């Protein structure tokens, strides 16, 4: 039977985990689901400012910590409906300074932690949970940065960041396939650069914008419709996909 849009986009009392809830995008996603009356658990190493989410301090790279948190949420609510693997780290200095420690930190945060969250949740998830998993990758998991727009001191993303994000897209496909019969959808969103006036110089923003068909950096709100779609019953038949939201950057 055809349902109303509002029925399919109903997040009331959905139990959601958002990792990296204290960061730029994590705060937007937390607010979005709070406004839609969800039960929002935010996991991060640092506490978010002025947030009404249920914050749990957690280093997601630590297996035992993450497992304990997920167990706690299951025992309280008997369900988890949405997981957003959003936390990530990156390095910005020239590759000649990169070392094994940097590689390990990037891979463990950007790849191993999302993998573990998928592992723990899929082990507990029941078909009725209709679990939706959204991995936040990056446009630099799809294409390389255009190095010509960077000047000395600008933050251009490292090779290992891009590699970790490309691997996250692949893991999305793998688990999209493997977990489909458990009524779990696993999808990915690859954002283009997000405007952050605290971190980006005006000169850099100008050059970045010139490189984008939509002529601007992203706002955190640019991803909400895709997150809502992939979290909702609208996407019950969508799995293993990567939605690129980059203002057309990757088309050039
Ligand atoms: N900002 C951008 O331009 C951009 C572009 C493309 C993709 N992304 C992706 O979007 C996501 C969010 O980015 P953002 O800009 O909001 O990042 P951010 O740096 O503002 O926030 C990341 C959060 O993750 C947390 N975190 C890191 N390691 C952790 C760990 N081990 N345990 C728990 N928490 C941990 C940090 O404390 C931080 O609060 C990331 O996956 C990022 O790669 C961002």
The small-molecule ligands in this entry are: nicotinamide-adenine-dinucleotide
Walk across the major sheet and give the strand order: 3-2-1-4-5-6-7
CATH architecture tag: 3-Layer(aba) Sandwich
Question: What's the story with the biggest beta sheet?
Answer: 7 strands, parallel
How would you describe this protein?
This protein is α/β, with parallel strands linked by helices and 252 residues long. It has a single domain, classed as Rossmann fold (3-Layer(aba) Sandwich), CATH 3.40.50.720. Helix content is 37%, strand content 14%. It has seven helices and seven strands, in the order αβαββαβαβαβααβ. It has helices spanning 5-8, 24-35, 63-77, 100-124, 159-178, 202-210, 224-231, and strands at 15-19, 39-44, 54-57, 82-85, 132-136, 185-191, 242-245. Strands 3-2-1-4-5-6-7 form a seven-stranded parallel sheet, with helices on both faces. Helix 2 links the parallel strand 1 (15-19) and strand 2. Helix 3 (63-77) runs parallel beside helix 4 and helix 4 (100-124) runs parallel beside helix 5. The longest helix has 25 residues, at 100-124. It is globular and about 50 Å long. The protein starts with a helix and ends in a 7-residue tail after the last strand. Bound molecules: nicotinamide-adenine-dinucleotide (NAD). Nicotinamide-adenine-dinucleotide is lined by residues 19-20, 22-26, 43-46, 58-61, 86-89, 109, 136, 138-139, 191, 193-194.
